[in-house]
Amino acid sequence: MLILCLAIVVTALVPPLSAQSCWRDTVCTGPAQASFSGPWDRYNYSPPSRRVKPARILSSSNDYISGFPSPAILSGNGSVLVFDFAQEVGGIVTVAYSAQGHGSLGLAFTESKNWTGEWSDDSNGSFGPDGALYANITSANGSYTMPDAKLRGGFRYLSLFLLTNSSLTLDVFDITLEISFQPTWSNLRAYGGYFYSSDETLNRIWYAGAYTLQTNAISPGTGREYPLVSEGWMNDANLGSSASSVFIDGSKRDRTIWSGDLGVAVPSILVSTGDDVGVRNTLQVQFDFQKSTGEFPMAGPPLNFYGSDPYHMSTMIAYHDYILQTNDMEFLNTTWDKYKLAMTFVIQKIDSTGLFYCTGANDWGRSSQGGHNSEANMLMYRTLVSGSSLATWAGQPDLSVNWDAVAETLKTAVNSPKNNWDASFGAFKDSDVDASIHPQDGNSLALLYNGTLTNRTASISAKLMTNWNDIGAAAPELPNNICGFTSSLEVMGHLAAKQSTRALNLIRLSWGWYLNNPLGTNSSAIEGYAADGSFGYRATTGYSNDLSYTSHAHGWSTGPVSALINYVVGITLTSPGGKTWALKPQFGDLDSAQGGFTTPLGMFSASWSLMANNSGLTLSYDMPMESSGLVSVPVPAGSKAIVILDSVNVAYSYDHSIQAIELWVGGGAHELFISYD
């Protein structure tokens, strides 16, 4: 069989932005241009047009040949051309051709190079073959456009092949992909946030994560069908929303709102693409399909799965993160009673021990769940603490005090050696009765959500490192697998514990390994992979016998996006919308970093650069004028610092517990110079 491959460079051969429109009949409501522009734009994977075309060839020996031969010729039964879009894409393909003879043209799609050929990788969920689409060739000149229901949400490679009982030659002279994701944006590169540092790998990873989230923003009429089709695929299901876009779990599949993913995806969306409208639409679906008991769906329509306490609480935490970032008090007011019902649903599961007893045991894929599980208890602790903030914003201070008190009782209980803390190991065990596993998720969340005692953070962070291999952090609670979701939590956990170099190394190790993998998309964040470096996440657990089912663009794996902004650049909001904020950079092993994001209040950005010989740094920031914040900068222990703000020597306080200088500042654009000896 003849196999040739063409590749498509999505930044070339496209019309100018002025000629672009939004997806199909969607009203364009997205931003016209990016909030920040600079040298970091070259890392942005999003195409400048909603229509993209091919550019290079992959030979039968998998070596690229430069140039785009036109026309590309298929000749005879079984002949194949594999078109490579050079990165993750998704949408509707149109193929224009001239033909001599009769037969069928087949189209097959894959995210990974491993499965290119006459069969698409697996996406339908029934594990029957996805197979291919077929177009009848009956005329000398023609074109084929995929049916809308056959939209392919995530792929890199498009294989074209011929089936014929006679002689057939096909000259393919044009291929166009109409991008379907981020449906309300005419300018797909109009991000609300940015990141840029002295580390090329981290820059690429940040933008791959942002792009992953963008490919997860879809029209709610293009979800995966349920009940699942037995073969082929159908992406025309309604996801329970009449809005223009929502966020789903994966571009290729499941193309459904899975609430557990939101805990990682929402903070990263809000500081990268900045699509707060899509986030609100997604959360609204959760409220619309909330049960009368207060329970949120684990997966929204058309799946309508329930029975997951961890995913229920992830929705509640994501809701807090959205309100904090946007100050959307109208949404808070219209959903507040339902939120309180959701809180009642989980608070009643805190028993006489002070611990949360998980009865909704469906979860992200860990080997077991239920009872006084550590992960569930850390989620419950954060749900209570974030709920307390929401109660304050909603004007119910008594409720805030009550939820804080419950949170402190739970924190004391879960940290007791009689319950979940394993003093002999120096980390949390999986539950109060299971010391055989010290989970990645529970221990990472303990660090991230401040669910443990301060004097234990160093031990927990160090113990998490014992799960690392050469390509990532294997999850003890899902043996032999590296999961982008729990690894995201671990990255943020190390940063919360002030182990910044450790966190950066894990990002480079895991996300860098995949981004540079010649078999991957080279542009997105994968759902997970086997600890031996093979694709087929969770294949050893029976999740799927088809290794190609793994999603290569999954929102739950985008933790580095928010981590690099909130911890490394160091900007976090401390009141809704950013009226107050904190700037607490962590340097790790970097020389410089900068980044920013946009809220309805305005643009927030900061940039820091270290001086040679560890003698000081320059810290610039630009925040909305009507805001104020706390700047906290770590300095070497025992050093004497001089702080100059906008060329004026200023006084500062020193926090000995974190070895940082601190000062309260106003909004606007300012430059801080700090020297120490």
UniProtKB/TrEMBL annotation:
Q: Which residues form the Alpha-L-rhamnosidase six-hairpin glycosidase domain?
A: 242-416
Q: What are the protein's GO molecular function terms?
A: catalytic activity
A GO biological-process term:
carbohydrate metabolic process
This one is known as Alpha-L-rhamnosidase protein
Keyword Transport found: no
Tell me the Pfam families matching this sequence. Bac_rhamnosid6H, Bac_rhamnosid_C
Signal sequence annotation: 1-19
The record, for InterPro entries, names: 6-hairpin_glycosidase_sf, 6hp_glycosidase-like_sf, Bac_rhamnosid6H, Bac_rhamnosid_C
Keyword Signal applies: yes
- Note the SUPFAM superfamilies from the entry: Six-hairpin glycosidases (SSF48208)
The Alpha-L-rhamnosidase C-terminal domain covers: 570-640
Name the UniProt key words of this record, in alphabetical order. Answer: Signal
